[in-house]
Amino acid sequence: MTTAAPAATAPALTPFSRLLALGRAETTLLRRNRTAVFLALVLPFALVGSLRSILRAAAEHTPGLDVNGNLVTSSMGIVLLVVVYTNLTTAYTARRNDLVLKRLRTGEATDTEVLLGTAVPSIGLALLQCLLLGVGGLALLDLRAPANPLLLLAGLALSALLLTALAALSSAVTKTVETAGITTLPLMLAAQFGSGLMIPLESMPDPVANLCRLLPTTPALQLLHIGWLGTDGTGPSEGFAGTWGQAWLPLLLAAAWAGAAAWAARRWFRWEPRR
């Protein structure tokens, strides 16, 4: 008497493969949402056009301000804010209200994997746009190569992590997709005007600038300036070695804010639709 061979079992998925699967599904949903695609692809570059004139005006009152350098690094910050924070707040709210996130929690993926998997397309698109901005700055604006690429990458990574967590927090107080533009507006304005993107911190009075440096988004975004320009202000580039002396405090603050935001997102994120 022969016995039937046991049925082959599917190999267990790793956390990385689950993230990729969730990311592919979210990418498909993102492509189908024309409004989200427009906001992610067009709006950041529309804001960049107005940013140049603002920086030129600031340079008249701030001797030594590198307009082109700040234009590229500030544009990267704006791209991260719009594509990661604003777009992802909308995505979390929409998937929650459609009960997509609730169904995903019943599978193998952990809560962290569900949140990060949803964020994969937005983060990938933002980093791609930042790369294009950097290449464009080198080719068209005759900028120097980044003084410290490691700090630049750290700024991009910490900004993406922080804004993903803040998007999850913002979605907790966002009832519908239509109200996401309202709930994300305070942080967007605070980051653009208080974190040195639209108005360089060096152009502000010292008490105001010191206060703005403590905002959650400022340290990570300042790492972009230090990593590329080699300085956090209007002075000459400090070179690779010298940038670490300027960057250690923003690096610690950025990591602390990102960790705190990630903890708060896991603590207060809403998986059920708001009634």
In percent terms, what proportion of residues is strand? Answer: under 5%
**CA radius of gyration:** 21 Å
What does the overall shape look like? elongated
Main sheet characteristics:
none
H/E element order: HHHHHHHHHHHH
Instruction: Tell me the total number of β-strands.
Output: 0
User: How much helicity do the residues have?
Assistant: over 70%
Termini separation (Å)? 62 Å
Q: What structural class is derived from the secondary structure elements?
A: mainly alpha
Return the average pLDDT rounded to an integer: 86
Describe the protein in words.
By secondary structure, the protein is an all-alpha fold. 72% of the residues lie in helices and 0% in strands. The chain has twelve helices and no strands. The protein has helices spanning 15-32, 34-41, 43-61, 67-97, 100-104, 111-140, 149-172, 180-183, 185-194, 206-212, 218-229, 239-268. Helix 1 packs across helix 6 (111-140).
Concise account of the structure shown:
The protein is mainly α and 275 residues long. Helices cover 72% and strands 0% of the residues.
State the main characteristics.
275 residues; mainly alpha; 72% helix
SSE inventory with pairings:
Blueprint: H1 15-32, H2 34-41, H3 43-61, H4 67-97, H5 100-104, H6 111-140, H7 149-172, H8 180-183, H9 185-194, H10 206-212, H11 218-229, H12 239-268
